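Re-run with default settings, no changes from the original entry. Doing this only to confirm the output is reproducible before filing.
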Amino acid sequence: MPTKVQRSRRLYRHTPVTRRGPHPILGVGGALLVGLVTLCLWILWQGRQEEIVPADAIVVLGAAQWNGRPSPVLKARLDHAIALYHDGFAPYLVLTGGSCPDDAPSEAAVGRDYALAQGVPSEAILLEDQSHTTVENLHGAQTVLTTTQSLNILLVSDPFHMARARWIARDLGFAAYPAPTRTSPISERFLEETWYILREALALIFYWTTGK
């Protein structure tokens, strides 16, 4: 008759060991996280692309104005666009961006005053001063440029913004060439730029799913 120890060993030897895989929710969460990181890296890479070519117009995406003066972010975009205009890359400068309630003037109007002070003639400046989002910026620019038949544009914004802006511009029928500014204060602060890249990734997903 087997002893108690022998019976215990047999039981241990023949008892199957069940191995459990990762919980399905963890698997899905991990896949989403990998996808988000990949998208952020793609946005970072897109922001480093630059294709300065002759175009029909230079479109500047809006940013905040401070009491009638360009914020540092808007100023960096305007300086880059104005330099491209003076270098002869396009005959028109399209300035976009509306104003918040009780916060006149618009971003576009502030940009116009700044561009005029930098020697850009008024007839070369086209305004879109009703928009509040990137999609609205570019829809408005499309409307403004309808009369000039301008489809080839140099797109000026911060590097973190270029991936989504170019995607929207292409959806609207533009041939959009990236011309990111390299002097924005956001680009000089790693943590702030990382936050903006993450926000752009979420905004791009939102655009892909809603068109807004």
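The mean pLDDT is 88. The helical segments are 4-14, 24-47, 72-86, 107-117, 134-145, 162-171, 190-210.
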